[in-house]
Amino acid sequence: SWTTGNVIDEQVAAIREMVGDKRAICGLSGGVDSAVAAALVQKAIGSQLTCVYVDHGLMRKGETEQVEKDFVAATGVQLKVVDAEERFLKTLAGVSDPEQKRKIIGREFIRVFEQAQAEIIADEGPAVEFLVQGTLYPDVVESGGGTGTANIKSHHNVGGLPEDLEFKLIEPLRKLFKDEVRMVGQELGLPEEIVHRQPFPGPGLGIRIVGEVTKERLDLLREADAIAREELTAAGLDRDIWQCPVVLLADVRSVGVQGDGRTYGHPIVLRPVSSEDAMTADWSRLPYDVLAKISTRITNEVRDVNRVVLDVTSKPPGTIEWE
Ligand code: XMP
Predict the structure, then answer these.
(1) What fold is seen in the domain 208-310?
(2) How remote is the CA of residue 314 from the centroid of ligand 1, in Å?
């Protein structure tokens, strides 16, 4: 019968057998899937696994610390953190177009990850032959199966690596659904905040700022987002909503009045949605008093924000994210 304990034992044995005395690497995104996959592989092969976390500076408040501190404390995993905030901000400077932002963030992410990968390969130790991925059953079905080997191309030949690096994939979550992955993560002792994290896009807050991405705007949005998350959690609504993007309309200003002065600040958009799979979604009918609390706190506590608006659009026609 299916138990999380059985799944863990089976996978640990299979991974040990597969990896032998070689090494493996795993990219952590802060999300549930990569965290649980990494924790499983860590349990199987310990220090033969090295994880890489690229800090692109586009994460929400506290999320990078969760990976760096709490995840490491819970698993004992060997982690290489690359602080790439400055690099990402520099490359994103002056860019407002959503697709261009996505392209830049994706491209830089791969470059930084490959650089870290090359450094790990160059370290003393057995050959790095394996790459861990948090592929879930729905991903397997969607892509029509797959052979289990990936061809990772190194486009710019970092550190004198061969043109084509071939890794064998370890995908310990290939037979699991999301709720099962969360159960395995819980059983492995991962922090609650990681196990129950709502979906968050790879490009992070970079696609939740309508307009140019700057450090100042990111800090603003991080504050507003943290307040919204805090109040939704306090109201016990985390399990009712699929996710709640918080968006900064950096290119928009409106007039307000605060204290005894006129303000000319930016609006924050709340985009709470309910969904089964993110393909379609409906806007969540949140209690007015929770919305009021979030609005009051954001306008009081976040500098330069003088208005909070609610997105009442379903998907379609709106997407969940604004960019
Ligand atoms: P949309 O905005 O297309 O989002 O309705 C659907 C779901 O996908 C997430 N999303 C992303 N996830 N990389 C990701 O890993 C991305 O580039 C990306 N864009 C959107 C979004 O948060 C929602 O859950």
Answers:
(1) GMP Synthetase; Chain A, domain 3 (3.30.300)
(2) 15
CB within 6 Å of ligand 1 — which residues?
Answer: 199, 201-203, 243, 278, 315, 319-321
Burial bucket for residue 42 (CB in 10 Å: 0-12, 13-18, 19+)? buried
Q: pLDDT per residue over 223-276, tens digit each?
A: 999 999 999 999 999 989 999 999 999 999 999 999 889 999 999 999 999 999
For ligand 1, the distance from its centroid to the CA atom of residue 70, given in whole angstroms, is 25
What is the domain partition of the chain in residue ranges?
4-194, 208-310
State the closest ligand 1 atom to the C-alpha of 318, by its place in the atom list counted from 1: 5
Domain 4-194 annotated CATH 3.40.50.620: yes
How many Cβ atoms from other residues are within 10 Å of residue 303's Cβ?
11
Q: Whose CA is nearest to atom 21 of ligand 1?
A: 201
pLDDT in tens, 36-48: 999 999 999 999 9
Separation of CA 172 from chain center = 19
Provide the whole-model pTM.
0.91
Q: In angstroms, how far is CA 63 from the centroid of its own chain? A: 9
39 is in an annotated binding site: no
Nearest-atom index, ligand 1, CA of 321 = 2
CB atoms inside a 10 Å sphere around CB 10: 12
Residue 281 CA to ligand 1 centre (angstroms): 12
